[in-house]
Amino acid sequence: MYNYAYNLYWLYAMRFFSSLIPAYVIERLYWEERGMTIQMVIYTEIIFAATVILCELPSGIAADRWGRWRLLLLAGILGCAEFLLLVFAENFWHFAVVVLLAGIGRSASSGAEQAMLYESLLAQGRERHYERHVGRLHALDITATVIAALSGSVLASLYGFTFNYWLSLTAAALALLFACLLREPPRAIGGEEPEEAPMPIRAYVVASLRFFRRQPQLCLVLLSAMIIGAAVNFIDEFWQLYLDRVGIPVLYFGLVSAGIYALRLPGSLLAYLLKGKVTYRMLLGGVLALMVTGFAWLAAGQGISGLAAIALICLASGFLEPLVSGYMQHRADPAMRATLGSFHSLGEHAAVMLSGLGFGYWAGRADVFGGFGFVAVMCAVYLVMYMVVARRVLNQ
Question: What are the C-alpha distances in Å from 362 to residues 70, 367, 368?
Answer without folding.
Answer: 41, 7, 8
